[in-house]
Write a structure and sequence with these properties.
This protein is an alpha/beta fold and about 280 residues long. The strands form three sheets. Strands 7, 8, 9, 10 and 11 form a five-stranded mixed sheet that branches. It has a four-stranded parallel sheet with strand order 4-3-5-6. It has a two-stranded antiparallel sheet with strand order 1-2. The protein is built from twelve helices and eleven strands.
Length: about 280
């Protein structure tokens, strides 16, 4: 029995999550519920989609996860539904309110919430450790190299374009300190929202009018009625029709700090090439 216990301990996994909590599992989890789309996508990028047994309602990529049981929203999911799925571990954001309730029911919880490029790398490696995937570092290097390639594809004439990136109606913007802001910086664009306002601040619409961006990037869900916003008719980007409107699938990709970050960088680069004031027809 002692030898068996020692063997079992030798195969146990320990992961320290973004709460600073160290979670111990007897072995790599085979049944996973993910409550954050970026974590769902990262599990699948690591080649482990088959371990997912449930996801939040917003996890929709890759297409195969749309067939999985949905357990509600990531912030306040359906606890009973999660318990019924008998997961080995639940992956969630640190901001989720469900962690304590699930742990009280004996379910292992790992909270990870990537917000910047370094976080995407860290979460990729941590999930690689959890799932015993050996090439997680290689996958991250490929993502990072693709972002750099997108930056190198841009002509010098579009650099320093003043960009406003709207994440959601409110308006909520992507600031310099967000992963979207970091991508824009790597592309040589100038974000009108400084880092001291936070990663995703809710802005006074007048702030955007005064900042007068050269280019607006926005999702289709938020784009209706842009010209009707008070004072926005004077914004250069709208006067000169320098607006990139991303359909829902592309918008989802752009606002998720996960493995599709490189594709998001390519979309932003294409937008700059097509719409920036310095772009050639």
């Amino acid at each position: 029995m002692l030898a068996f216990s020692l063997l079992e301990a030798a195969h146990a996994l320990q992961v320290t999550d973004d709460r600073g909590v160290t979670v111990t599992l007897p072995a790599a989890p085979q049944r996973i519920v993910s409550l954050l789309p970026s974590l769902t996508e990262t599990v699948c990028e690591l080649g482990q989609c088959h371990r997912l047994v449930g996801v939040d309602r917003y996890s929709n990529f890759p297409a195969s996860v749309q067939k999985l049981p949905q357990v509600g929203g990531g912030l306040d999911p359906n606890i009973e539904r999660i318990v019924a799925l008998q997961p080995d571990v639940v992956l969630m954001a640190t901001s989720s309110r469900a962690g304590d309730r699930l742990q009280a029911l004996g379910i292992k919880v790992i909270a990870l919430e990537p917000k910047r490029h370094a976080d995407v790398q860290r979460v990729m490696l941590k999930l690689g450790q959890l799932l015993e995937v050996q090439d997680a570092a290689r996958i991250w290097r490929a993502i990072d190299a693709a972002v750099s390639a997108a930056a190198q594809s841009l002509p010098a004439s579009v650099r320093n374009t003043k960009v406003y990136f709207e994440v959601n109606q409110g308006p909520y913007a992507a600031g310099e300190s967000s992963f979207i802001g970091e991508t824009l910086a790597r592309l040589g664009a100038k974000n009108i929202v400084p880092s001291n306002l936070g990663p995703f601040p809710k802005l006074n619409p007048e702030y955007i009018v005064r900042a007068n961006p050269d280019l607006i990037m926005i999702g289709q869900r938020s784009a209706d009625g842009l010209m009707a916003r008070p004072g926005w008719q004077s914004i250069r980007a709208l006067r000169e029709q320098r607006v990139c409107i991303f359909p829902a699938d592309q918008s989802d990709m752009l606002v998720r700090p996960g493995p599709r970050m490189a594709e998001g960088a390519r979309l932003m680069a294409q937008c700059l090439i097509a719409k920036a004031p310095g772009a050639k027809p």
